[in-house]
Amino acid sequence: MSINSELPKHVRQSSVVIKRSCCTPSRPVEEIAQDAQQNFLDCTILHLRNCKPVPGGDALLGTAYPLIAGDGESPLLRKKVRPLWWECGATSIGQFKKFVDATKYVTVAESLGWSFVFYSHVPGGAEGTLGVEGLEWWRRIEGANWRYPNGPEGAEGSDEFPATHIALEDANAFAKWAGGRLPREVEWEHAARGGLGDVRYPWGNTDPDDLHHLPCNIWQGVFPVHDTGLDGYSGPAPVLSFDPNGYGLHHMVGNVWEWTADPFKLRSVSVAARRHNASDRGRHLLKGGSFLCHQSYCHRYRIAARTGNTPDSTSSHTGFRVVYDSAP
Questions:
Q1: CB-based burial of residue 76 (10 Å sphere; 0-12 exposed, 13-18 middle, 19+ buried)?
Q2: How many domains does the chain have?
Q3: Cα gap 90→108, rounded to integer Å
Q4: Is 135 within the bounds of a domain?
Q5: pLDDT of 222-275, one tens digit each?
Q6: Which of 59, 167, 179, 185 has the CB geometry, 3.0–4.6 Å to 108, for a possible disulfide?
């Protein structure tokens, strides 16, 4: 039995063909915004930053033991990185609200008028909504955006939760205004490891489970039909919840996917990888997984795991985190 066949019948039957991306649903190509918004302030707002220093030096990128074929998780490489200041959590709704209040910025999701919401989070139910063929749990919801993560019929997002429904240009706009930038993949993995070296997760190598070991905000139960929420959440968690890693950073895996500064490319030098990169231009890299990840379907809440999506695509589990090249 397929995962999709376990969904409610009305959800399975009310779908439309929208460009598919496994973990992060993509907008149709014809709806891609043509011009990035440029009307933002190039300044740092006092009390915006909540940072921890991450030392530079030798860094690990990737893994020698990839789990998901085609994602480009291997090989394991050693690189050099500079010291950085990292936001302790993903950018919160409260932080993003300060940016919007100061600049009158309009996000891609607000401009286009809709975004993707997980079907069981849609207020009043998902019946009558459109979704992604093959990934019917993602529903196109008019008016869903960072202010109303589950759509306009739902509650306004709380300040301590991550800003979601964020496109790449939205994340870059905020980062520039705040005086920072998005991290590169090698910087992200170095920070996520928290000084532990070649480990699978920010806390070590022990796999989360559905009952006893719940170190991050991911799915427990049977995806996508039942989330027990034993970790305390069946959706996003506040950005500073759960224990931080060795560098004091929260939710480096789980909770929400985080945009990075890099395009999505396979690092292998094989002919097949070069062909894939040439044919798959345009997708951008996200790291960390989300509250919807589960080992049975999307085991991408590992440090070396990765996914890519078109830069204008937005959803209720996609956000970002800012880094700074100098001390706040």
A1: middle
A2: 1
A3: 19
A4: no
A5: 999 999 999 999 999 999 999 999 999 999 999 999 999 999 999 865 656 556
A6: 167
Considering the entire predicted model, what is its pTM?
0.89
Q: Per the domain annotation, does 116 fall within a domain?
A: no
- On whether the CB atoms of residues 314 and 116 are closer than 8 A, the answer is yes
Which single residue is written with the structure tokens 């376990």?
6
- CATH number reported for the structural domain that contains residue 202 in this entry: 3.90.1580.10
Q: Could you tell me if residue 144 is inside a domain?
A: no
What's the rounded Cα separation, in Å, for the pair 256 and 292? 9
Q: Specify the pairing of strand 318-320 against strand 257-263.
A: parallel
In this structure, are residues 181 and 322 in contact, taking their beta carbons and an 8 Å threshold? yes
Q: Which of 2-11, 25-34, 46-55, 180-189 has the lowest mean pLDDT?
A: 25-34
Q: Looking up tokens 């097949």, which residue turns up?
A: 272
Q: CB-based burial of residue 27 (10 Å sphere; 0-12 exposed, 13-18 middle, 19+ buried)? A: buried
| Contact (CB, 8 A) for 285 and 23 | no
Amino acid at 259: W
Q: Do residues 86 and 240 make contact, with C-beta atoms less than 8 angstroms apart?
A: no
For residue 31 the two structure tokens come to: 């709806």
- What is the predicted pLDDT for the residue at 272? 63
